[in-house]
UniProtKB/TrEMBL annotation:
The keyword Transcription regulation applies. This is Transcriptional regulator (TetR family protein). The keyword Protein biosynthesis does not apply. PROSITE patterns: HTH_TETR_2.
Length: 195
């Protein structure tokens, strides 16, 4: 029961922080949403910082699972898997609005400097996602779809960092232009399909 309530708190906290921010979300707000009595929070987390780390890890693993699924689709070549992943996320934002963005990127800009524990959790999730893209790039290079002259890990880092920057700009502009620019330049000029 304790682990189920803990997971409910993490999910509610992730939703609230994605809608607002880490600092704008109060513990009582999250407790009320999942109908947990006031004062019970510390049965599940030692601090709001620990709660923030748990939220980053939860959100990060959810996204990693989506990336794994899309990048392992054997019905598509590796290059096409990457492109389809980003197109799928673009489609989500087109239908859901452009204000949400990525919770990990949002927390990185807000709280990483103030909390070394949260910063390290954020880094671990970014590294996990980049690693998944690096493996897909290596596969694409082995098939001749992407130039082998690029270091796969460095290229994956560049691609994913550019994507996150595009998401931040999308939230500021409240439109998809930055995402569309990312798609056009990334797949036409940075990693064009070689065959």
């Amino acid at each position: 029961m304790k682990s189920l309530t803990r997971k409910k708190l993490i999910k509610a906290g992730a939703r609230a922080m994605l809608a607002k921010s880490y600092n704008a979300v109060g513990i009582q707000e999250v407790l009320s949403e999942v109908d947990v009595p006031k004062g019970s929070f510390y049965h599940y987390f030692s601090s709001k910082e620990e709660f923030g780390v748990a939220i980053v890890e939860y959100y990060g693993e959810q996204l990693a699972e989506t990336i794994r699924k899309r990048l392992s689709d054997i019905g598509l070549s590796p290059w096409h898997r990457m492109k389809e992943y980003f197109l799928g996320v673009r489609s989500y934002y087109a239908s859901a609005g452009c204000s949400e963005g990525c919770l990990v990127a949002k927390m990185a800009t807000e709280i990483a400097n103030a909390s070394p524990r949260i910063r390290m959790a954020l880094k671990a999730e970014f590294d996990k996602w980049v690693g998944l893209f690096a493996r897909c790039i290596e596969e694409a290079q082995a098939l001749g779809e992407i130039s082998p002259e690029h270091d796969a890990a460095a290229l994956a880092e560049f691609i994913y960092t550019s994507w996150e920057g595009g998401l931040i700009r999308m939230q500021v502009d409240q439109e998809l232009n930055s995402i569309d620019n990312f798609m056009a330049y990334m797949f036409e000029y940075v990693i064009p399909l070689r065959k």
